């Protein structure tokens, strides 16, 4: 255990000198390549977890089924990896600090919690297996939630340490990107945890605790019959890694499912609050993500308000959620109960410790209630987010990096230097425009992700850069795709303005062309910056390595894009209008490209538009290939199509863009206990706020589902987006941090 003791070296407090290095970015690319190879190996392992390719062959012309079965293998593997990561987190990274109570948070010393006196000293012996490393990687890329989990679990000495870049670099082969740690690391992991180093050598079963009698119940990871049709492919599977998980306790006959496990997590946290004075999840920092001492005055302790409210109704809630009562079956039932209790004047007065007649929650308190609830909607684990979903969403980024293949590029070092400089501009845009969502391109996102893997340095850089108000800029990994697209258009325009004509998305796919065209060509008079941007765009098209490979450019980073279900008519209309605008902009860019081609003496390809459609699908939908454009899409570019047929094809193209995740979600909806690529937008759907906690004026940390998305603000949401922390916004950040109300709470 000596190797796990923290170092006496203090955490760096001035990270602005060297906040990020090119070598860290390169090692990060190596690590992502190892993750990509791991996914390929697992997905293509026929028969793994009892999932056979032959199951897809039983239905003719159902090529999609084979892909879904491959994805299901990966989903089961990730669920197993999350369980292993949890064990490593709890039992290998031992708690070194006392978990703070509400009394501790009210103490002035709480402000120093982000300045741990000691930090973990990484050694080869404590490097985990690759699957565990992958989950940890995704965990860290949710900065505010990772900070919360380190505080809640007494692991700030881990938070204060950088990612073990040098060790990881040493143990990933530079040619085949195979991860091969030392034998000492293998022995330590297996001895400490009693599980195998190799995920695949672990048993086909796991255990859950019965919420009713606390017995340990053995369950299969995946169990049941795979149906040979897309709609019901995995609907009969009932293992722990399956959406339809259910098992009967052998002691008390209680029926256990994912919903009951989420309620059990809530009960455990309420008990910790009542018996040990430990705050509820989501109550460890203000709406801007910054931990600071909470004064006794309730008016200045907004982030503790959810704990105060739950403390008032805690005994009633334990009775309501008691499994023996069989009343509360899921978090929606729990939400409804809290909603009713929150209408009682006496409850609100006690939560505010006041006898005033008016004691309704203020705006920041409403945000914090939503933030607390977001820890439960799709999450029965001990962390602030569903790590299985986080890994799945990060997987899109991993695949995009693998396709671009910068790690094997002869210009790797110059590419890294350029993207680091671009990232600094992007970060300043986030700081200067806190009410907007800044959305990164893939190259910027690589630098941003790399920066976040040094949590304390990233935190310090963020708070030192945002003086008034101080803000810990988050990285929201679950954002409505429409808001992501709108944010990206704004970011492109702002980047062009602050760089005097710089091109933000150095890519020529149809989507990037459509985004760029209105800004730099849609003006009668061109400023100097616009003229510079036009020249830069022309130079971009003249580079053969870029123009010939549109899908390999640094597009918008859309790995966190999610699709809203149950859209209102107004929301559907917004998407249609947005799609038509993009389509018209792309048509104009095509005409300009045709003129450019004619002036150079060669004709534009007749399938240019089809290639553009394929490129954007390739960008946002990982499993789509460049060859997957349908014949209908290809015919869009043909001048021989009739006007009616063209409009029909345009409709298909629009649907492909705004429903780009729909094909993935429709096919993979039964793969996961909770859908990682979608959010419910219905009035009272999963992830919806407690009634009364949404506000038109709130711009940060919205709910995923309030019937009217505009009333909730930005896109993070109770459905798991984690946007309630200030400074969040998208995979882009910045949106909402400064608009959540004054008071710093």
TrEMBL record:
<dbReference type="Pfam" id="PF07173">
    <property type="entry name" value="GRDP-like"/>
</dbReference>
<dbReference type="InterPro" id="IPR009836">
    <property type="entry name" value="GRDP-like"/>
</dbReference>
<protein>
    <recommendedName>
        <fullName>Glycine-rich domain-containing protein</fullName>
    </recommendedName>
</protein>
